[in-house]
Amino acid sequence: MHQSRHDPLWRHPPTTTHPPVVHYCGQPRFMEKALALQAQEGPRFDITFDLEDGAPAGDEAAHAARAVEYVMSETNRFGRVGVRIHDRTHPHWWRDLTTLLPVTAERIAFVTLPKARAYEDVAVVADAIAFLCRNAARTPPLHVLIETHGALRDAYRIAAHPLVECLDFGLMDFVSEHLGAIPADAMRTPLQFEHPLIRRAKTTVAAAAHAAGKVPAHNVCVALDDPNLAYQDARRARDEFGFTRMWSIHPSQIGPIVDAFTPDAEAIRDAERILLAAAAADWGPIRDRGRLHDRASYRYYWMVLARAHQVGVPLPETIAAWFVPESKR
Q1: Radius of gyration of the chain from Cα atoms?
Q2: How far apart are alpha carbons 96 and 100 in whole angstroms?
Q3: What is the pLDDT of residues 141-167, one digit of tens each?
Q4: Integer Cα distance of 185 and 309 in angstroms
Q5: Are 249 and 224 in contact (CB under 8 A)?
Q6: E strand or H helix at 279
Q7: Model-level pTM?
């Protein structure tokens, strides 16, 4: 039984599910390597081609054209490749969009905007995307980096914009925005999870995203030689702050982050048992192991299974059918 969006269970639609990792790469050889890895492992992670901080300086036009080539190539097998453009104060932001969108509008997964200073920056870029895609079959969504004081102040308003799909927290730029008032150690673990100003920023970003039904994405782990630290950072981001997605900047981080965001086996078993009983009861209240469950907890357990399904965890056939799009049933 596939649950209809018109059923009471979906009265409050759940947060959109996305792959739990977005892998950033700006050098051509790393872009090619990321596409090859995604082709091998499947769409367990997204890729973002970086035209901004992670890209060569002075070669902006050629690099944007190269990103177009990769997005449109056969190596982009799953259509899960986005592009980070320059910020709105940079002269290349408009050139980035005019290079990308006339060609890739129907293929690019998303556009990421860095260093938004306020809601107004997001609105201007969103309008530009909509204008450039006015004759396309789709308008790609916008992901917004929250890494300035103004963007953090406007986080709820930004998240509510209809074109915005994801709020990304930009830790290093956010620390730098404080002009030395936050120590450099706060750009990494453990202080990034303990400093009061950063904890406030992370909880605000996650809360704003969830309030609008959007995706909150956690910042990178800068320890490139310790994949386990990426796993630990992802678990803390998930369990303590409510993030459902995290950046990767090295291929060795992708697997550990996926593992960290994959629901635990016990949680998956509980969700399967409870939702199968709920479906048998026409989604009315049930008793499970001495505890009451109704549509409020069903929505929670539904998302446990949705996230498990997203990363390829095998589910019973009856349950897996719930997550097959209507167009494929």
Answers
A1: 20
A2: 6
A3: 999 999 999 999 999 999 999 999 999
A4: 37
A5: yes
A6: helix 265-280
A7: 0.90
